């Protein structure tokens, strides 16, 4: 054979080989995109073996098998998620039922102890009166804990419609709620500046003020001094601040005290450790943030942000 016909023959073989490789890869690609059901893995392998050759068939088999395993694991994960959601719903329902069942008897105990305190024979008995005060304090703390847990549950599972809220009105409502606490502790509560409206849910925002003001009084100085302030920021948020005259918060505790049932290590005041957790969860649900800073005079500044209305 002459050199020229041989060269042309080699070129022809090369073209045929290239076309065969392209067709092989194209067939393999189609198989991989179509044969994803585990029931036709064997058929897909046979077709790939006939049309594409043993190497492409092996690759097709491995990739098809991997897709089948991933699909199987995805289905199993979906089943587990459904089971987990069902168990969580059952647990939530159980927790609500227990909370309400506990609150009823506690309310009866507190009411009975309060009525007994008006009996002249008991009022003049110092030891009995002290027992009644202890019952009232313990009962009220238990009710506060139950109310806090129910509120946390509601915040987690409910999302009311957000609308412009008169922030000053929520502050007024909160101060009315904690009025007795303010009077008993002879606390001094002041406001600095105006309070712009925000996009929020009024009852939740009022609860934030109640918890932060109560926290400032509980851990404040003697007498407690609490200042409430607000400032609009450049990013369209309103930054609210509650400043107290207490001992401040250790930097190591600043994140921890926003968790459920956590309080600052240096604080010995009584409480259930839910107040700041409720604040953090509410503010987060209202698309804001919370934080703590130390005031210049040694107290604490608890701040939170809410989108401006």
Give me a quick take on this structure.
The chain is of the alpha+beta class and 309 residues long.
What is the first-to-last residue Cα distance? 90 Å
Beta-strand fraction estimate: 5-15%
Number of helix segments? 9
Main sheet strand line-up: 2-4-5-7-6
The share of residues in helices is: 55-70%
Succession of helices and strands: HHHHHEHHEEHEEHEE
Query: What is the overall silhouette?
Result: elongated
Major sheet = 5 strands, mixed
Overall domain count:
2
Overall pLDDT, averaged? 78
Number of strands: 7
Radius of gyration: 34 Å
Structural class: alpha+beta
Poorly predicted spans: 32-43
Describe this structure in words.
The chain is α+β, with helices and mostly antiparallel strands. The chain has two domains: 1-158; 163-307, Histidine kinase-like ATPase, C-terminal domain (Heat Shock Protein 90, 2-Layer Sandwich). The protein is 61% helix and 13% strand. The chain contains nine helices and seven strands, in the order H-H-H-H-H-E-H-H-E-E-H-E-E-H-E-E. The chain has helices at 3-34, 41-52, 54-116, 120-123, 126-157, 167-177, 179-184, 202-218, 275-285, and strands at residues 163-165, 188-192, 198-200, 225-232, 237-243, 290-294, 300-307. Strands 2-4-5-7-6 form a five-stranded mixed sheet. A two-stranded antiparallel sheet has the order 1-3. Helix 6 crosses helix 8 (202-218) and helix 8 runs antiparallel to helix 9 (275-285). It is elongated and about 125 Å long. It starts with a helix and ends with a strand.
